[in-house]
Amino acid sequence: MSMIATSNDSKRMAEIAEKVRHGERLNLEDGVFLYETDDLLTLGQLANEVNLRKNGKKVYFIENMSLYFTNVCEARCAFCNFRKDLGDEGAYTLSGQEMIEYVEQHIHPGVREFHIVGGHNNHVPFQYYVDSLQALTDRFPDVTLKAYTAAEIDFYTRISGLSIEEVLKELQKAGLKSLTGGGAEILSDEYRKKMKVEKANVDRYLEVHRTAHNLGMKTHTTMLYGAIETHEDRVRHMMQIRELQDETNGFLVFIPLSMQPRNKNAGIMRRNSAYEDLKTIAISRLMLDNFDHIKAYFINIGPQLTQVSLSFGASDVHGTILKERISHAAGALTPEGLTRNELVWLIKGAGRIPVERDTFYNEIKVYE
Ligand code: SF4
User: Fold this and answer.
1) Which atom of ligand 1 is nearest to the CA of 76?
2) In a designed cystine with 300, which of 208, 233, 258, 318 is the match (CB 3.0 to 4.6 A)?
3) How far is CA 308 from CA 70, 103, 193, 315, 319, in A?
4) Domain coverage including residue 211
């Protein structure tokens, strides 16, 4: 790719800007061009315009807390540094009571969401996952349980013999309110084969979310970028998510996740550049015209770049988190969480209005 914009590039960018300003949907070629252009500032400006139209100057965050109930996992995804085999040093599986004790030790006032994920532990039955949620619901009835990835739900169908719908209904009875977005990686079966993504395939990932949406559950969705995938793979990923959103309108937010570097098995030994991270946030904002929010995840791109990304289309900075584990196992050098004051400072510093939200983007407090 030439680093000097040609007049053809400028013409192509102007055509895309026209489409964006007239609310016309971008296609695969548009998305790939935006990845390949070096005109980062025009790209950012367009994404910023779209975001300002949708959200004004508001930027959202939540007081939440991450819980990892087990790191034992039957899968061996090439990029994962979190998983352990049963019996390995550091392998653990928390009982419902142990989860409660962990939360009681670490929870701070104002936490309104638990973000709960873990390994595919086939040494415990499906009932373990139901009971864990029920224990948390009984002890913390006012905290929203956003739990499990679509890949974990797919895994539960395999260990229980139940359908996706039956698994989701059982978990809903125990208090499940929303699914997390993980497990999407890159929605390409070829990528999944090469990267040894030993979990739900593309169809199953989408089918779990479709089923949840049809049950009235709003969910989250991600894209883990920065390994062997092409720009076209990323844009196709966004388009598949966009198609499902057209069908169900069940996604709350799209979360681009920048791959972390400590992944020897996957051959990934460098971070994505800030340029690539900003482009991905801006292109997500432009491609996903039917999403209200694009999230900048400070755990993976750092608080400073998160702040800059608020001028490149992002309208959400996730939340307080407290002791993130998965990205840090993979080499993240960022804080494991931020306080409410730090998030408010970060958003205000970018000239935006911090809005504390609940899981479903209902506004709790506006920090004018
Ligand atoms: S990414 Fe998830 S499913 Fe894959 S090995 Fe890690 S914990 Fe297991």
Assistant:
1) 5
2) 258
3) 34, 33, 35, 11, 17
4) 56-366
Q: Does residue 45 sit within a domain?
A: no
> Domain tally for the chain?
1
Question: For the stretch 319-358, what's the b/e string if a residue is b when 16 or more beta carbons lie within 10 angstroms of its beta carbon?
Answer: bbbbebbbbbbbebebeebbebeebbebbeebebbbbbbb
Beta bridge partners of 251: 219
Cα Rg, the chain, nearest whole Å = 20
Q: Which atom belonging to ligand 1 lies closest to the Cα atom of 149?
A: 2
23: alpha, beta or left? (left if phi > 0; alpha if psi -120 to 50): left
Q: Give phi and psi for 3, each to the nearest 5.
A: -90, -5
Distance 327 CA to ligand 1 centre (A): 12
Question: Is residue 33 in a domain?
Answer: no
Name the maximum alpha-carbon separation found in the chain.
64
Looking only at the bridges linking them, the beta strands covering 363-366 and 353-357 are antiparallel
pLDDT digits (tens, 9 = 90+) for 137-184: 999 999 999 999 999 999 999 999 999 999 999 999 999 999 999 999
Instruction: Give yes or no for a contact between 315 and 51, defined as CB atoms under 8 angstroms apart.
Output: yes
Q: Is residue 9 part of a domain?
A: no
Residue 77 annotated as binding? Answer: yes
Number of H helices and number of E strands within the chain? 14, 11
> What confidence tens digit (pLDDT) does each residue in 269-315 have?
678 999 999 999 999 999 999 999 999 998 899 999 999 999 999 99
Kindly report the average pLDDT of the chain as a whole number: 93
**Structure token pair of residue 364:** 């709790």
Nearest-CA residue for atom 6 of ligand 1: 80
Domain assignment of residue 171, yes or no: yes
**Alpha carbon of 94 to those of 124, 183, 295: distances in Å?**
11, 21, 29
Nearest CA to ligand 1 atom 3: 75
Q: What does the angle CA 339 – CA 341 – CA 344 come to, to the nearest 5 degrees?
A: 110
